[in-house]
Design brief:
The protein is an alpha/beta fold and 683 residues long. The chain is built from 21 helices and 15 strands. The two termini are 69 Å apart. The structure holds adenosine-5'-triphosphate.
Length: 683
């Protein structure tokens, strides 16, 4: 299957240009159509009005790569397995169950599967034979209804009765065996899928998290995995047993009486046809219901994780209303699904009961004409009842299959997603050689979720190693974006960012974040563990002494050691048991522990009161020594000592200089300082 191409917009522009150039020479007749389609493209992935036919184009890419690209009705597709730097290919129909992927999970545990199948087959064979043995038993009973010779009766019935007991015991043992095997298999597959899913989610671009709500993402990890697992177990165990029993008992039925079997099975094909149509309708409803459940979870997740904001704005009622509305939509979709499944099961029951009645009618008739014995009628009834039970099980499994396939499709959608920015791989500047020279060269950038809004426009900035640069400007002017780009949370649309002369896109992102850069932001996020573990997050292999040294540097050691449990104090969820200033100093210690060459301070003291700000500021002053520092600050009083102050307005640098020179300029910076002096308590 051809894969849909996705790429970041700057890559897309180059790609578009390359396609058009090559198309002009190889497919001149389609050139205009394709050109029109590309230039009307509303987003990077879809081509709105496109060439009427499928047009394959051989495409040579930079670096000697050659791929076949296909412009289909409204999409640009490339060959499966094609890998192009900067592109990600996604399955055209994201929400289809990916059987090939599923096989990669099943394959390593195939022996469990085979063992389970073998066990289930033995059980099924026993289930098929039991009615026949039971029929024999009935025939013996019928024979002795007139005669009162109990000794003879015991002698005749013993072998058949023991055979039956043996079969029942074997049936139990093999049932235990195959269910255990299947359960193990299901757990192993679910474990592998869950870990791959989590890993894929964590590897996604930051833009993915901008687009998708946390609750929706978490649902895939929790209820979708759970649904898939239980559906898999139920379907394989129940389905396998039911299928073999239906097949085996059908053979028995034919052997006992072909005429009766003919009558019984007359209506099966039509039932299968109706079931298939019904099934696809139910699958769609099930997917919708699950998507709606995700939304409901997301609303709850947001409300609960932001409970303080909800409480502070007295928004409990509105949150409840929002949740209720989403839950109601979910309920109505699930109700529709329930009605569908109910209809299906009711129809199946009707069919099954019809089968029993016709069997009795025909059986009675054949018995009266001596074509069948009582035991044979009994065996026939038991076999047809086994089929009946199996069919009932199939109809029950149906709902579970639908839920499982929908859950699996959603899990594979995320597992198959490839981030456009790798997390690892690339150049590393060896320790000791990293200086910390930073340069933004003609950078233009728009967030992936808002492509029309250019947040930085032709932004140029040089930060020499060891210097402190402050970026100031009104809110929403792109200050934090500068930091986000340096951290490579996003890639620039145009231009480049270099560290010691190396484009950061060529550097190993893990090394860049772990070793080169230290970020301290306004809202320090701590994990719900001990203080020492929170600081150690900056360098997992740090010794206790290193942790304490970083805490001393961050002016945090004093307050930490004043706690009864010192560094082992638990901080509570997101650090709720600490004050803002304390949390911030732990975050500083965490960043300093990795000894970064570049320190990024994004409004690190803005959320603090004057007293805490002074302590944190003192910690930051110590931390600055020997590092390149980029400070973003609202309170201009905190950045007066910076070597250079850059004033941003609407994503462009409008002024640059030292505090004194900018004040003399009496421009934007001066007016910002003036406004703050007016509003400060002293002013
Ligand atoms: N993840 C995002 N997705 C889409 N747009 C964003 C995102 N983050 C920020 N923006 C937008 O980018 C613009 C610049 O935001 P940025 O956070 O860089 O401003 P700022 O100058 O740091 O503001 P503040 O001083 O208030 O923190 C704003 O218009 C903002 O709405």
């Amino acid at each position: 299957m051809w894969k849909l191409i996705q790429c970041s917009s700057n890559v897309h522009n180059t790609f578009r240009h390359t396609i058009l150039q090559q198309c002009r020479s190889t497919r001149p007749t389609y050139y205009n159509n394709i050109r029109k389609a590309f230039f009307h493209a509303p987003s990077k992935t879809r081509v709105s009005k496109c060439a009427p036919k499928i047009i394959p184009i051989g495409l040579s890419l930079a670096g000697g790569a050659f791929v076949n690209v296909m412009i289909s009705r409204n999409k640009v597709l490339c060959e499966p397995k094609t890998r192009m730097a900067g592109y990600r290919t996604v399955s055209d129909k994201n929400l289809r169950f990916d059987w090939a992927k599923f096989w990669t999970y099943l394959r390593p545990h195939i022996w469990y599967f085979i063992a389970a199948i073998a066990g289930a087959l033995v059980v099924a064979v026993l289930n098929i034979q039991i009615p026949q043995v039971m029929g024999g038993l009935i025939n013996i009973l019928a024979k002795f209804t007139e005669s009162k010779d109990s000794l003879q009766f015991m002698n005749e019935i013993k072998p058949t009765a023991f055979k039956l007991i043996g079969m029942y015991i074997a049936q139990s043992v093999f049932t235990f065996f195959y269910i255990t095997m299947l359960s193990n298999l299901g757990e192993k597959i679910a474990y592998c899928m869950k870990t791959d899913l989590f890993s894929s989610i964590l590897d996604q671009d930051i833009a993915f998290f901008d687009k998708n709500r946390t609750g929706e993402i978490i649902t895939r990890l929790t209820s979708d995995i759970q649904d898939f697992k239980s559906s898999f177990k139920q379907t394989v165990s129940g389905g396998l047993r039911a299928a073999t029993q239906i097949l085996g008992c059908s053979v028995s039925l034919v052997m006992i009486s072909p005429e009766m079997t003919f009558v019984t099975l007359l209506c099966v094909p039509s039932v299968i046809a109706v079931g298939t149509i019904f099934g696809s309708l139910l699958r769609v409803t099930s997917r919708r219901a699950q998507a709606q459940n995700d939304k409901t979870t997301a609303v709850a997740d947001e409300a609960v994780s932001n409970i303080r904001t909800v409480r502070a704005f007295a928004m409990e009622d509105q949150e409840k209303e929002l949740f209720n509305a989403e839950a109601e939509k979910g309920m109505s979709l699930s109700q529709n699904l329930g009605v569908g499944i109910g209809l299906f099961q009711a129809g199946t029951n009707l069919f099954i009961n019809g089968m029993v009645l016709s069997t009795l009618y025909m059986g009675g008739y054949l018995l009266s004409t001596n074509k069948l014995s009582a035991g044979e009628v009994m065996a026939y009834l038991m076999a047809s009842q086994t089929i009946q039970r199996s069919l009932a099980q199939v109809s029950l499994l149906f709902g579970s299959v639908i839920r499982g396939v929908a859950a699996g499709s959603r899990i594979f959608e995320y597992i198959n997603m490839q981030p456009t920015m790798p997390l690892k791989g690339g150049k590393i500047i060896p320790d000791g050689l990293l200086k910390g020279d930073i340069m933004f060269k003609n950078v233009t950038f728009a967030y992936p979720t808002r492509r029309q809004q250019e947040v930085l426009k032709h932004f140029n900035l040089t930060v020499p190693a060891g210097k402190t640069i402050a970026i100031v400007g009104a809110s929403g002017n792109g200050k934090s974006t500068v930091v986000a780009l340096l951290e490579r949370f996003y890639d620039v649309k145009e231009g480049s960012i270099t560290l010691d002369g190396q484009d950061i896109r060529t550097l190993d992102p893990t090394w860049l974040r772990k070793r080169a850069l230290g970020l301290i932001s306004q809202e320090p996020v701590l994990f719900g563990t001990s203080i020492i573990e929170n600081i150690r997050y900056g360098k997992p292999d740090a010794t206790d002494e290193e942790v304490q040294k970083a805490a001393v540097l961050a002016n945090a050691d004093e307050f930490i050691t004043s706690f009864p449990k010192g560094y082992n104090t638990m901080v509570g969820e997101r650090g709720v048991t600490l004050s803002g200033g304390q949390k911030q100093r732990i975050a500083i210690a965490r960043a300093l522990l990795k000894n970064p060459s570049v320190l990024l301070l994004d409004e690190a003291t803005s959320a603090l009161d004057a007293e805490s700000e002074k302590i944190v500021q003192a910690a930051l002053e110590k931390a600055r020594a020997g590092r390149t520092v980029i400070v973003i600050a609202h309170r201009l009083s905190t950045i007066q000592n910076a070597d250079l102050i850059v004033v941003l307005d609407k994503g462009q640098i409008v002024e640059m200089g030292t505090h004194e020179s900018l004040k003399k300029l009496r421009g934007y910076y001066w007016s910002l300082t003036y406004q703050q002096q007016q509003h400060s308590p002293a002013g």
